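Hi all, posting the design record for the shared folder.

TITLE: backbone redesign
STEP: 1 of 1
STRUCTURE INPUT:
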């Protein structure tokens, strides 16, 4: 495959992921009403909780990414280089999910309560429910764990407490 075509295929994959992200944000904001009645307090709490919203958006985006990659991987007669690129992206996606799950699980087990980790190719964000400001020791524990799990330096890790 020549360079120009490879760039076009990569651009198309990136565009598909970005479009999916935009669709996901609209879907979360324009959620259909559930068939079962819910209390207005429960709906308001869910809608205003940033951790729940972000987790839902991340899950929907991941499902769409996996679906798109799955279509590329299982299309008969697909270009071998595009299939190889999709396989690498699938592996990267699973690797990021594994790191996020490990970070969330370990921090929750260490008593940090509700935690949400987001790992990309270059950085990691850790959102956690905190009633008060994190101590320097707590921040160091979180930073050390994320750096070990991801291999990132401290400058590429953000710790974001949510009240």
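Okay, here is what came back for every position:
SEQUENCE:
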């Amino acid at each position: 495959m020549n360079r120009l075509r490879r760039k076009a295929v990569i651009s198309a994959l990136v565009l598909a992921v970005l479009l999916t992200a935009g669709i996901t944000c609209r879907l979360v904001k324009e959620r259909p009403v559930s068939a079962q009645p819910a209390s207005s307090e429960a709906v308001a709490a869910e809608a205003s909780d940033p951790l729940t919203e972000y987790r839902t958006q991340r899950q929907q985006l991941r499902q769409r990414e996996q679906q798109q990659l799955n279509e590329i991987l299982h299309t008969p007669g697909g270009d071998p280089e595009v299939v190889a690129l999709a396989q690498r992206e699938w592996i990267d996606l699973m690797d990021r999910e594994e790191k996020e799950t490990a970070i969330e699980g370990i921090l929750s087990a260490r008593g940090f309560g509700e935690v949400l980790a987001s790992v990309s190719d270059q950085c990691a964000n850790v959102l956690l429910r905190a009633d008060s400001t994190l101590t320097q020791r707590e921040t160091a524990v979180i930073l050390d764990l994320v750096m070990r799990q991801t291999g990132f330096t401290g400058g590429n890790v953000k710790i974001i407490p949510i009240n």
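COMMENT: The CA atoms of residues 21 and 89 lie 16 Å apart.
Let me know if anyone wants the other runs.
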